[in-house]
Design goal:
Blueprint (H helix, E strand, L loop, with lengths): L1 E5 L4 H12 L3 E6 L11 E4 L18 E4 L5 H8 L7 E6 L33 H16 L4 E6 L1 E3 L7 H11 L2 E5 L5 E2 L1 E3 H14 L3 E5 L6 E2 H12 L4 E5 L1 H6 L27 H5 L7 H13 L17 H16 L1
Parallel strand pairs: 1-2, 1-4, 2-3, 4-5, 5-6, 6-11, 7-10, 8-13
Antiparallel strand pairs: 9-12
């Protein structure tokens, strides 16, 4: 197949390009040349889809499918979708399009944020769910349900990570010592390896199978405790995880997610955050590898010189070392009392 991949040099796009080339497809990438190197074996075109003129390099070109792994601005996606470049469009979205996480089993019929398909402006990660829903609508309204696949990914991990949550845990645990760990180690997580996400998208493209899918394991596939253990095993660290009560963490001003990555506090508003339904993707052929493999491969990438290059506008993750030690000291004092 002749595939046009928008971007194609960072994390999800990079994995899709690598897999597509391995499958024998002819791949053209279209990007600004700012994020990373184009893979060997692709036809690399330069442009910027934020304007009509920016698509000039694609004029007169045709492909079997367009794959859009990173669109964040609805108007940019709409411009690409309307360019009549291919009869099929694949868009990688996010489960953040859903308005509520109050119940387990959120599926593709759940209420979403009210996106606007022609909304323009700079990328805005603070409005990720709204913006991604707008991008979905741009694709849906242009291609219809049968000629487009929308992959709503959950928390993506794996080599060449540009989010930084799993790399932070690996790096911190590799340093050793006592490591601040949040709440219940048995709390379930749903993590999807970037290579499994990419394989699923390409499978749908090859089959020209339209639809909307939550691309997540159909149930939690690890726990916070197992993830920390996997990090220790991958790095060979003897670090000691100190599991601290959530209420105490709040009392010390520790921020969920930002300072202790992947920590979503228990509560009615987040009961379904790590329990999204992946039944549709599973039925469509999603295959997922063990989380321990993702952890190991991510560590090998980091050890070989890999570096997290955050998406523009994203803040780095992780608690400062001094603050971590202050919280641990306070926890120890409380335990003694």
């Amino acid at each position: 197949m002749r595939l046009l991949v928008i971007g194609g040099t960072a994390f999800v796009g990079r994995a899709i390009v690598a897999d597509a080339l391995a499958r024998g497809h002819k791949v053209t990438t279209f990007n600004r040349g700012l994020t990373g190197q184009d893979a060997d074996g692709v036809e690399a075109l330069r442009g910027d889809r934020s304007t009509d003129a920016g698509l000039r390099e694609l004029t007169g070109r045709s492909f079997d499918a367009v794959i859009d792994p990173g669109g964040l601005v609805p108007a940019h996606v709409l411009r690409t979708a309307r360019a009549e470049l291919a009869p099929f469009y694949a868009f990688v979205s996010t489960t953040a399009v859903y308005r509520s996480w109050t119940t387990a089993g959120t599926d593709e019929s759940a209420p979403t944020w009210p996106g606007v398909p022609d909304e323009d402006g700079d990328p805005d990660l603070a409005r990720l769910g709204v913006r991604k829903r707008g991008c979905e609508l741009a694709v849906e309204q242009t291609f219809g349900p049968d000629a487009a696949v929308i992959a709503r990914a959950g928390m993506i991990v794996g080599p060449h990570d540009n989010v930084g949550q799993l790399p932070w845990w690996l790096t911190r645990i590799a340093q050793g010592g006592r490591v601040l760990a949040p709440g219940d180690p048995d709390r379930g997580l749903q993590l999807i390896d970037v290579r499994d996400l990419s394989a699923f998208v390409l499978d749908q493209v090859e089959a020209r199978a339209g639809g909307i899918h939550n691309v997540v394991p159909d149930e939690p596939n690890t726990t916070m405790g197992h993830l920390v253990d996997d990090c220790a095993q991958a790095t060979g660290s003897t670090a000691e995880a100190v599991w601290v009560d959530e209420g105490f963490l709040f009392s010390q001003g520790v921020q969920p997610w930002a300072e202790l990555p992947l920590w979503i506090p228990d509560g009615p508003a987040t009961a379904g955050f790590w329990a999204v339904s992946g039944a549709s993707a599973k039925a469509a052929g999603l295959r997922t590898r063990p989380v321990a493999e993702s952890v190991r491969d991510t560590w090998e990438w980091l050890r070989s010189g890999g570096e997290v290059r955050l998406t523009p506008g994203a803040a780095p993750f992780g608690i400062a070392g001094e603050k971590e030690q202050q919280v641990l000291t306070a926890w120890d004092a409380r335990s003694v009392v």
